[in-house]
Design brief:
By secondary structure, the chain is of the alpha+beta class. It folds into 2 domains: 47 residues; 194 residues, Glutaredoxin (3-Layer(aba) Sandwich), CATH 3.40.30. Strands 1-3-2-4-5 form a 5-stranded mixed sheet, with helices on both faces. Helix 4 runs parallel beside helix 11 and helix 5 crosses helix 10. The longest helix has 46 residues.
Length: 245
């Protein structure tokens, strides 16, 4: 009788180990699969889709037909936001940007390359889309850059903020922003007054709201004559497209 009890115990132990091993294997498989999908997703966000521009545009460079496209353009292609290029250009690119977004930082050099190479045929408008839930302080940076714009230093501030992005604290104080005055050649009193002005806050909020209505879900997001392109589009893709128009 004692021998029988020992045999049953050994059988139970074996089944337990088998079940534990099977469960552990499933956990490992799911973890590896989830990790692979996550890395793939991050890579897509970082690199964008090389074909995105070509898929969205037809071969002769005109836009594919999109319902309510003109209403989208009327909403996002503003005349009071900073821009580079030709104000009268038929091709208008709108970028929705978050100054704490590392991918926006990466695109900033491409932005200037587009302007230097094709500034005569394109207008590039910058609008704010600070995602505070992901990048605390992004709204404050947008306000600062726009205030610098009031002193004719928008692009200098735009480039500086991206240059020092990794050094910017999570909790951005007015004192920190005022500490950048000398690097940009700004008048401190004017900047101090401006960054406390609620009008600048509402300006960034208006950009954000228009972006949401236009379908912006993250940054950077571009609209090429109203057609939405998401992610980091490489310089070569922009270059190949712009050379054809």
């Amino acid at each position: 009788m004692v021998l029988k009890e020992v045999q049953v115990l050994k059988w139970y132990q074996k089944i337990g180990w088998v079940l534990l091993f099977a469960f552990g294997s499933l956990v490992i498989v799911f973890a590896v699969a989830f990790g692979f999908l996550t890395l793939h997703f991050i890579q897509q966000i970082k690199q964008g889709d090389d074909e995105a521009l070509r898929e969205r545009l037809n071969k002769n460079g005109s836009m594919a037909v999109v319902p309510n496209l003109q209403s989208v353009r009327d909403m996002i292609e503003t005349n009071d936001d900073p821009f580079l290029g030709n104000a009268e250009a038929k091709l208008v690119i709108v970028e929705f940007v978050d100054f704490k977004c590392p991918i926006c930082k990466e695109f900033s050099s491409t932005l200037h390359r587009i302007n230097s190479s094709f500034g005569d045929k394109v207008k590039i408008i910058i609008r704010d889309f600070p995602i505070e839930s992901m990048h605390p302080g992004a709204g404050k940076l947008a306000q600062f850059v726009n205030c610098a714009g009031d002193q004719e230093k928008y692009w200098e501030a735009h480039d500086l903020v991206f240059l020092i992005q990794d050094e910017i604290p999570g909790d951005i104080s007015d004192e920190y922003l005022l500490g950048l005055v000398n690097r940009l050649g700004l008048e401190e009193d004017k900047l101090s007054e401006c960054i406390k002005d609620t009008e600048k806050i509402f300006e960034a909020m208006k950009d954000f709201d228009d972006g949401v209505l236009g379908g912006v879900e993250g940054t950077p997001t571009f609209f090429v004559n109203g057609e939405k392109i998401e992610g980091l589009v490489p310089w070569e893709s922009w270059k190949n497209y712009l050379e054809k128009i």
